[in-house]
Amino acid sequence: MARRLSAPAGMLLAAAAAAAYVGAIDPNEQGNYPTCPFLALTGYQCPGCGALRTIHALAHARIGEAISLNVFAVVMLLVLAFFWIRWTVARVRDRPHRTKAAPAWAIWTFLGFVLAYWLVRNLPFGAALAA
One Pfam match, by short name (predicted)? Predict the structure, then answer.
């Protein structure tokens, strides 16, 4: 059982370590992390802009602030948690891994959501999405 759970446990440990680091080193302070290259070059926010600040807020249990900084990142963290739980349960039950990440329609739908979020957060009516 321990061998089957080593990969999910390792992934959880890596994610927890990354979250702890971002929780301890404030991305709101200038110079702690590099600026988003897309933002620096264009002045527009990418879908990930604000994600470090979002993780910092979540690490300090400030859920409302995290959602206001980057709602897409919060949703993606929940999606990642779902897939990690599904993976862990499959390993506990000794079921085989899926060899395909997702059906093509799901990948294209996800890409569509990313592009729509990227576009809307940079338009005047989507300013609330660009914190």
Answer: DUF2752
